[in-house]
């Protein structure tokens, strides 16, 4: 029996938004995106949809989400209610745990205006190795140890997702990715690995290093349903902040 083969071609673009536009214009078919970028991809005129979600391993089983937490140095004394004048560090503009959740949450609470920068945030799976030196800032005004992220987080963030046009290529994309993870996923022994960091290579190359599997998203789920109420509310607060700056 002849083995079926699928050709994969990579289209290089300067930014994620260029890739989104290329998919919308039928120049490319799919891209893996952070939740904040999934939101943008779902807007007009692009109207792309999430079709495949990354799965992460956590205590208690696997999940298609992760926790956005705010980390501070132990012994510094302040809480979420005392952030004025503090300096923050972020994983990236427009990133879910690094920007959209902390800034969107603080805007929603009325703690900052759009040009404020009052919270440091990292993704839960990238928590610092020296955990004993840090604590989490909780939304209720308390602090908790870093390991208590399930009880002290700012939002549960949807996993990174593969987005595509809502057309007849969706099945082909899933079939390709499904076969790829069977051949190169967790537990395989080949030199190429679909998930995880290889030696000292770049981080999060194809998918997040913490991903262990890919899971198909139900066909009726659009970007808003996939991102969920908490996250979508944070994004809306950011958008309102941008609009307020223009007036």
From TrEMBL:
GO molecular function: metal ion binding
Bilayer-crossing regions: none
Protein name as it appears in the record: Transferrin-like domain-containing protein
GO terms classed as biological process: antibacterial humoral response; iron ion transport
Residues annotated as domain Transferrin-like: 1-240
Species: Limosa lapponica baueri
Keyword Transport: yes
Annotated keywords: Ion transport, Iron, Iron transport, Metal-binding, Repeat, Transport
Cellular component, GO annotation: early endosome; extracellular space; plasma membrane; recycling endosome
Pfam families reported in the protein's UniProt record: Transferrin
